[in-house]
Amino acid sequence: MNKLSIIISIFICLFVLEGVAEAASVSTRVRILESKSYKHSKQIKQQVRDQKKLVVRVDKGLQEIEDVKLQVERFISKAETKKKKQGRMSPGYSYP
Predict the structure, then answer these.
(1) What percent of the chain has pLDDT over 90?
(2) Cα–Cα distance, 4 to 32 (Å, whole number)
(3) What secondary structure letter does DSSP report for 91?
């Protein structure tokens, strides 16, 4: 073998190895990005679940507040009705 064929074969090997190294580098970057995107999607799904739970809790709390409000209104109306009945019982009597 002469020097020219050895130099050419070395250059060819270098170009092939460079391509392989570049492909490995790209592959590694893709794996890293996939793992990051998976982690982010997992966090987003967890946040969505937590938000749904919070919305349910808030709705339940608002419903309880509405129930208490209705009970208070009923109590007030009963108290007013009771006062009106007590006022009717002695319509004509007054102290001298």
Answers:
(1) 51
(2) 42
(3) S
Q: Residue 29 and residue 26: Cα distance in Å, rounded?
A: 5
Q: Nearest to residue 83, comparing CAs of 95, 71, 75?
A: 75
How high is the pLDDT of residue 59? 96
Neighbour-count burial of 80, counting CB atoms closer than 10 A to its CB (0-12 exposed, 13-18 middle, 19+ buried): exposed
Model confidence over 48-57: pLDDT tens digits? 999 999 999 9
| Coil vs helix vs strand at 93 | coil
Read off the tokens for 14: 């270098």
Distance of alpha carbon 22 from alpha carbon 16, whole angstroms: 10
Q: Is this model's pTM higher than 0.70 or not?
A: no
d(CA 37, CA 83): 68
